[in-house]
Model the fold of this input.
Amino acid sequence: MAVPARKTSKTKKRMRRGNIKLQVPNLSACPNCGELRQSHVVCPNCGFYDGRQVVKTNN
Done:
């Protein structure tokens, strides 16, 4: 059974865990209305996706 020869230092452990974080979603402008939205997702403001209206909205 493999056992580490030495204890992992706090620095090494924290360097490894430095990449575990919350990520902000990438936002892009909707080509139809200009509102910021997530890529590859229907625009919540106008309901358009890929140049077509997919969802009816009140706007």
Observations:
- The mean pLDDT is 90.
- DSSP finds one helix and four strands in the chain.
- The radius of gyration is 22 Å.
- Helices lie at 10-17.
